[in-house]
# Entry
Amino acid sequence: MKVLHVETGLHLYGGAQQVAFLLRGLADRGVQNLLVCPPGAAIGQHFAGSAVKVLEVPCSGDADLGFLFRLRRVLHEQRPDVVHLHSRRGADVLGALAARLAGLPVVLSRRVDNPESRAWVGLKYRLHDRVIAISQGIADVLAAEGVPAMKLRVVRSSLDPKPWQQPEPRAVFLAEFGLPTDVVTIGVVAQLIERKGHRILFDALRALPDRAGLRVICFGQGPLAETLRREATDLGDIVRFAGFRKDLARWVGALDLLVHPALMEGLGISLLQASAAGVPIIACRAGGMPEAVADGVSGLLVEPGDVAGLASALRALIGDPALRTRLGTQGRARIEREFSVENMVDGNLAVYRELVPSP
# Structure
């Protein structure tokens, strides 16, 4: 079987990392993989010189109608058995149109739970033969908006836990980020954008009666970087901004706690990473987060936007090291049991086989 994958993201963020896991797993199962990505994209560089054939095709976004014709030309040249679209930007509609024009079955992975109008849903998803939701939460949103059940499949995102289970020693971690030895360290791993909820966390910190022994490290970059820095100044040196780190696996396991106050989230790869590292989590009951974090098992869940609830959860975990240890240990076991790369690869391959007749 030959599968052409389209990933238009420039960086190796969560979604692109899932594509990388998938392509490696499919190759191990004898699938021939072609990867369409923009010139200079991190995922293209990741697979340079590998068995994956990388085809660089410029794509500047949803309004780039030329991408439709450039991709159609590639499809006619390569003649894959199925086209798998992994990105929203420029690919979910234009990529599907290109596949339809080429007469090829098309699969879309849906990684976010952003709402769409029923009218748009009725037009857009008509283009796709199958829609793979990376969580049941996303599938529920799509079904409620009118995507037919016969098209919907749920294949959870996955994680290779090994890199996350070998963090740097605590002393090295503290030195790297200039932290004192006697603090509880809280991590936030998310783009600096509105829906990730950084402001809600800052408000919850302000509600704590004693925060002198805390340090919060915000990993990530985004358009709100300077705004959030300014808004956190009244918290003093409690909040640090570490930017985007390619070596995140070295540091997450040294945290005492990970907080993800997102207002919406398809699943949350950073939550899986933290659990793999044995770090307890506070997240929200929104999107796929309740699937990534089992309440009372691997972490605590609060309502999205609930400052008081988040402050209460923070107090509970900050003040109870034994509870943090128990949740972290249980979270690690759950990742290995329920979020394996093998399960994710097999799930996607099963969807392809629904569309491609056996020889």
Summary: The CA atoms of residues 34 and 53 lie 5 Å apart. The mean pLDDT is 94.
